[in-house]
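Request: Not sure, any thoughts?
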Amino acid sequence: MEYNIGAKIKKLRKARKLTLQDVAQETGFSPALISQIENNNVSPPIATLSKIARFFDVKISTFFEDEEEERKYEVVRRNERRVVSRVISKAGTGHGYTYEALSFRKRNTKMEPFVVTVSERPDEETLYNHEGEEFLLILKGRAEIILDEERINLDEGDAIYFDAALKHRLLARDGTEVQVLAVVTR
């Protein structure tokens, strides 16, 4: 299912009368990448969406939600999860992971939960960072997380909580699929 993330980003940019260059300069991404995202040619990873969301002062789930009224609670059934795949890096190479938004209707939240599935180990280990904090719980498989220069191995049931300003990257250890509950705060 497509969520037209690019159109929502473009709408935010146009509402503020900003150019692609303005957004690129403030987020650190190239104008070409912002254009590709806005035209839904590439789907950005969570870290990229987080920087864009922070720049526009919205939460990541804004890009997955339907236009509905404010809710006091939200139930998301397994078959209703918003799945984003085709995740492409800043350099234009594939990441080999998908993420599922577990909450996208509730507005003004302080945290955003996702199920992240890492299906392959990339050739390039680009690190990402963004504002806020992250909590990861390994649901399935064996993972390796890079936090700045440190590499930490995590097995099923292991969890890690860290400041997302640290440059980081989650990898599948041993090339096996890893499924992770990720909670990102603003």
Remarks:
- The chain has four helices and nine strands.
